[in-house]
Amino acid sequence: MTDHELIKQLRDGDEQAFRELYARHSREVFGFAYHLTHSATDAEDILQETFLRLWTGREQLPDIQHAGNYIFMIARNKTVDYLRKVSRQQKLINQVWSNMSATVAGQAEEPDGLLDAKEYQRLVNEALAQLSSQKQDVYRLSRQQGLSHEEIAAQMGLSKSRVKNLLVEILKHIRFFLARHSVLMAVLFQLLTEMQATR
Question: Most buried in the list 24, 145, 149, 179, measured by CB within 10 Å?
């Protein structure tokens, strides 16, 4: 049976036709997504989202001659959306690191703020002490040594995606820890809240 015939059956809600299209094209979609994301987990998510979009939009499918091209177009759009999201997260994480540095430095320049800066750093250290050694290492490599995600991934034997996820988890932990213990870092807290809302 041709892909064109399978698409016709899919429009009528034929689950077997859907499974056959998945069997024929899922490997190519996964390979494409993996090539761009370098993450099996993220590639699998894109694969599932691609075919979910195909299934949920089946009744509006046009008269497609080459299903592979159409499915690839969906996968490409899903991958682009993913990459844009990652880019936004990276920018926000960088912004958080920058603001953390600027806030502490700015407070340290003012005598009245010196105690607050020391208190902030103490709380951050306490928050970090509650994390695994792996997360502490990732934090220090990023925050203190200024390494990129790629450099941290290479040094620690992790994927870039895993490093990104760990940093998000670390920031979330610090955010809630500071919220419980201090109201001095309202700007930082807001930045972290914004980052969480965009995930």
Answer: 149
- Give the amino acid at 178: L
DSSP label of 110: S
10 Å CB burial of residue 45 (0-12, 13-18, 19+) is middle
Cα–Cα distance measured from residue 69 to residue 74, given in angstroms and rounded to the nearest whole number: 9
Residue of 106, 93, 64, 83 whose CA lies nearest to 174? 93
Write out the two tokens for 171: 């920031």
Give the domain range for residue 54: 3-84
4-30 pLDDT, tens digit per residue, is 889 889 988 999 999 999 999 999 999
Whether 82 contacts 73, CB under 8 Å? no
Separation CA 188–CA 97 (nearest Å): 9
Q: Which of 84, 118, 141 is the last residue of a domain?
A: 84
Is-above-0.85 flag for pTM?
no
One domain, residues 7 and 90:
no
